[in-house]
Design a protein that fits this description.
Shape: globular
Largest sheet: 9 strands, mixed
Number of helices: 14
Radius of gyration: 26 Å
Number of strands: 22
């Protein structure tokens, strides 16, 4: 063969080979990440400011999700464009200034770095903002105005969030946790991302159908735990429904009861490409939810504080755990109501150092923290603590005792101090903090397993405390997240609402098919 002909043949072959390779190499989808998450009570006098969200910007967002670690399959499947992700402890209503500041940062980053094929929208769903009735709906609509209507948005939520029609319409894919306590939180977020990646990689794009059903039920999370019935079986129906061809996901939201907004109620949704199966999945779940409404009970025995203490003192094994539910900071309470601690300090059983050992976790007291830092471990303090935000039920308390531990640098508390007052160890914090893990106590030199009684500002117990308990009562104490919903002054929620209107008629539980997010409303 002529050498020039041979060279030409090789060049042509290389050219077509390269072109074929180009076709085989798929371009990775560009996916943005954004979200603001908090559970905020409008029945608390507290307000939440921007610093409480500890916002992560850009690549620092990846550190919040183990499945985004360098080299993981999820990380490799797309070109990720993280913007801002702010997550706060539950608390009071968010100031408008804080909200607008974070939203502006998200929108500016989205404008600067577009275009996008998808967006992972990581929210809680129960954020209340001064002057807004649907904060998450407002946020996603403003994001849509920047990224456009063709971008696939996959929304991940807490099951105690609220899903308005606006949020549902602008979310192409949407899911929430299936467990309470939320042991599947990261699993649910990864599911939201995987669903998004699968739709983009397959070229299927937006689901053809979204079924949305509002369910007029509003219950505290402590009554809707999936550890017990009927929550366990209700959420147990979901895997079989989403296993059907043509159904991508289905979810049940219990709603958030401690905000007085018209969006606060249960919701069921299903999304997919098969209309009949999507509609049936949503309606089956909604009817099942309504059908078991009278069966929901508190996940543990419930009693007034005095009765809870009576049971704890009679217990032969420790620790006996009492949930100080009304001021639970993980549900939106101010976390500084002193009512329960005041009652404990007044009890004769704990007046002696030889009395039953008790840990109280916790009470914010910046004044006491300042004094403790001056005197150090082993020193005596006498300073005020608590009720700087929520003093409706009891005033600030003068705490006098011995400092047994000081720990600085906590993300939420900033500084933690243990003050021993007779047989009670009171954990005082500079800023509020929930105590969920054994390490939270042992890091302060406390041994919860060898303590007779532990009182925590929490509702249902998270796994570590739940496994540790030898007895447990949820105390009906006052605060911004009062478990007795009848005592809350609702004005804006839609009525009738179960159980506030227990004899209400059966509601319309037919699915409403929402349009794809191909237009801005």
């Amino acid at each position: 063969m002529n050498k020039y002909l041979l060279l030409t043949t090789l060049c042509v072959g290389l050219f077509f080979g390269c072109e074929q390779n180009k076709k085989e190499i798929k371009k990775l989808p560009r996916i943005a990440i954004a979200g603001i998450g908090i559970e905020s009570s409008t029945f608390s006098p507290a307000q939440t400011h921007e610093e409480a969200f500890h916002a992560r910007i850009g690549d620092s967002i990846f550190g919040r999700y183990p499945f985004f670690a360098e080299g993981t399959s999820v990380r490799k499947r797309a070109e990720w464009v993280p913007t801002l992700l702010g997550k706060s402890l539950p608390g009071g209503i968010v100031t408008r200034e804080a909200y607008e500041s974070m939203v502006t940062k998200i929108l500016n980053m989205l404008k600067e770095n577009g275009p996008y094929d998808g967006l992972f929208f990581d929210i809680h769903g129960a954020m209340s903002v001064v002057g807004l009735q649907d904060a998450e709906g407002d946020l996603i609509k403003r994001i849509r105005e920047v990224v456009g209507t063709e971008v696939l948005i996959s929304t991940s939520m807490d099951l105690h969030g609220n899903v308005t029609e606006t949020l549902a319409e602008h979310s192409d894919l949407i899911t929430c946790y299936r467990m309470a306590p939320h042991e599947d939180a990261l699993e649910s977020k990864e599911r939201a991302i995987t669903n998004l990646l699968d739709r983009l990689e397959s070229g299927k794009g937006k689901p053809k159908f979204k079924a949305w059903i509002p369910v007029p039920i509003l219950l505290p999370g402590e009554k809707t735990s999936t550890r017990i019935e009927p929550g366990k079986s209700l959420y147990g129906k979901i895997p079989a429904l989403v296993a059907q061809e043509g159904v991508i996901d289905a979810a049940i939201w219990m709603g958030y009861p401690w905000a007085d907004e018209s969006r606060n109620h249960g919701v069921v949704m299903a999304v997919g490409d098969n209309k009949e199966r999507v509609v049936n999945a949503a309606e089956d779940l909604a009817e099942a939810y309504w059908g078991v409404r009278n069966e929901f009970e508190f996940v543990a025995p419930v009693a007034r504080l005095d009765e809870s203490l009576k049971l704890a003192l009679a217990s032969e094994e420790g620790p006996y755990i009492i949930s100080d539910m009304g001021d639970n900071p993980t549900a939106g309470g101010a976390g500084d109501v002193t009512w329960t601690l005041k009652e404990l300090l007044a009890r004769k059983e704990f007046k002696s150092a030889k009395g039953p050992s008790l840990i109280y976790a916790s009470i914010p007291g910046p004044e006491l923290i300042e004094e403790a830092l001056k005197v150090g471990v082993g020193g005596s303090v006498s300073a005020m603590a608590g009720a700087l935000v929520d003093n409706r039920y009891a005033p600030p308390l003068q705490l006098e005792g011995t400092v047994t531990a000081i720990k600085e640098g906590d993300r939420d508390a900033e500084v933690e101090v243990v003050v021993r007052i007779s047989s009670i160890n009171v954990i005082v914090t500079k800023k509020r903090k929930p105590y969920h893990k054994e390490k939270d106590f042992t890091d302060l030199g406390l041994n919860p397993r060898e303590t007779d009684i532990i009182v925590v500002k929490i509702g249902y117990l998270v796994p570590e405390l739940y496994e540790m308990r030898k007895g447990w009562t949820m105390a009906l104490t006052p605060g911004g997240v009062d478990q007795d919903l009848e005592r809350l002054d609702y004005e804006n929620i839609k009525r009738p609402m179960f159980p506030l209107d227990a004899d209400m008629d059966t509601p319309n539980l037919k699915a409403r098919l929402l349009s794809a997010s191909n237009q801005l409303n």
